[in-house]
Backbone:
């Protein structure tokens, strides 16, 4: 199974991505997590993207696409994957189309976690207290929301037109949301 998980910052993508990955035995590949690991390890990539991420801005498409293309070639991604945080721009959608075409693969579905904007801010503020992510401060959260609305939310229409979009209610407990996701995804996992 090859799928994307989309939704606003704080919608619970990372949490649900891990549960989906365990359930279907596919790797959950998060561009944000890859960037954060590189920042923590002070790699050249980490140093290049650190400031942009702290400001809530996107990393340039060429960099992000190169990271994803390389990751999808690793052995564990051979039989399927879940992408969390990519694509986030129209150019990234096109880049992913090309990656898939080259590999003679296709997307099974695009999962969208839908949440109330108030829930999002609450969750991000709580996460800031627990995890201390550098981009979970109020100014950056607002910027990430803006960028999501401008650049990423419109991509949902693209995937909807392709008949790939599956909307899931992201409100409630982690288990409630996971239950809805598994119910919606089971038909793709055969
Ligand atoms: P969130 O929880 O806000 O959705 P992520 O962990 O997915 O955040 O990503 C954190 C940050 O990493 C983003 O705000 C952005 O700066 C950068 N990033 C992650 N994925 C992409 C992408 N596909 N394109 C550009 N920048 C990205």
Residues:
């Amino acid at each position: 199974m090859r799928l994307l998980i989309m939704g606003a910052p704080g919608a619970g993508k990372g949490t649900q991505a891990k549960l989906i990955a365990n359930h279907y035995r596919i790797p959950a590949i998060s561009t944000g997590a890859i960037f954060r690991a590189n920042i923590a390890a002070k790699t050249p990539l980490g140093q290049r993207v650190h400031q942009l991420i702290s400001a809530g801005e996107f990393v340039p498409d060429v960099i992000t696409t190169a990271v994803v293309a390389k990751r999808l070639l690793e052995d564990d991604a051979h039989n399927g994957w879940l992408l969390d945080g990519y694509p986030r721009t129209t150019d990234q959608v096109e880049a992913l189309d090309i990656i898939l075409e080259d590999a003679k693969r296709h997307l099974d579905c695009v999962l969208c976690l839908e949440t109330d904007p108030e829930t999002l801010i609450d969750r991000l503020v709580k996460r800031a207290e627990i995890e201390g992510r550098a981009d979970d401060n109020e100014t950056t959260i607002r910027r990430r929301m803006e960028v999501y609305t401008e650049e990423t939310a419109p991509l949902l229409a693209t995937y909807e037109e392709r008949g790939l979009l599956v909307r899931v209610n992201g409100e409630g407990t982690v288990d409630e949301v996971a239950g809805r996701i598994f119910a919606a995804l089971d038909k793709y996992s055969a």
Observations:
- DSSP finds nine helices and five strands in the chain.
- The beta strands are 2-6, 28-30, 81-84, 109-114, 165-169.
